[in-house]
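Tutorial handout. Part one gives the primary structure; part two gives the three-dimensional structure as tokens.
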Amino acid sequence: MSTMTLTYLNEDDKAYGLAGMAISLAALDAIDRVAGVSLDSDGPMVTFSHQYYFSGSPSISPKTTWDNLLRNFYITSAMVISNVMSRSMVRLGQDVPAELLDTIHNEISREGRDTCSLEDDEIDTIYEKTRSYMGRIFRNPRLHPAIDDFARTISRRRTLSGSEIIDELRALSII
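Part two.
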């Protein structure tokens, strides 16, 4: 039994992780928050649009600003979970190791407390909702060939804009 790590084993592993993140964004109807993805990036592989970073203004209500912050926390949590699910469930054909999910849960919990001042029960609810929803996507064997194709497209093209991601996922009937 092999174990998954948060580091990438090779370029193929990285492409599947990036594919998983992009698919989670599409599933959450948040692809508009991405400017692009790059397999060759020295920094983060996903570049977010200004909409993602928008923190509010005096003309926007505090509730709207809070909702946006919470939505971004949910999106990034889904991206992390989808990254490891795509790499493990689709690429390797095995469940994500429980220890890895525990590590991710701990990091999501820390981020939820630090960034959003969430209580543990609120964080646990978001984590379970995210893990369950992304699990349904990446456990679906009918989607695996399309996810494989998308990972290969990322490997071949190296960089895709947000609109190119949408076009590729539509062509593969993922969205």
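Part three, for discussion. The radius of gyration is 16 Å. The beta strands are 34-38, 46-48, 159-161.
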